[in-house]
Amino acid sequence: MALDVVSQSRCFGGTQFTYQHQSSETGTPMRFAAFVPPRADHNPVPVVWYLSGLTCTEENFTVKAGAQRSAAELGLLLIAPDTSPRGDAVPGDPAGSYDFGLGAGFYVDATQPPWARNYRMASYVERELPELISSELPADVTRQSIMGHSMGGTVPSPLPCAIKVATHQYRLSRRSARR
Asked: Can you give the pTM of this predicted structure?
């Protein structure tokens, strides 16, 4: 699968990327951010996945969290996907509500038309994106963790993703496991 670099910049000795690729799950171009730490120049590194909240894009965590410094020090690959399929051909809410449709994929797979074709965020986050990351980036897929905020940080979002992807692909933090 082809990854297109949308942007890249040096940051704390590593590189902050925004990538785009054509998703087979959503049928749309999808974007995600990846911070690749300096240690990844020599060996694959552990992955930390960040799932953003309602209406956020991959930029929310990348721009606001400032996590790149810690990730560079710890040698962690940070991955932050967009929260939804986007584009003119993707159906939104006919009433124009901000919390449904574009920007509100909820990390689930829709089952009803017209949304079932594009809103396949569970399959995207649980299968397609991890396969892409493991094949295209210096990821140590035996050491991964997942976190998020709002829609991306509460059950039902990362917990089922973590459980479904597990073959122990993600480790839940103690805080997430208690919820």
From this structure: 0.85
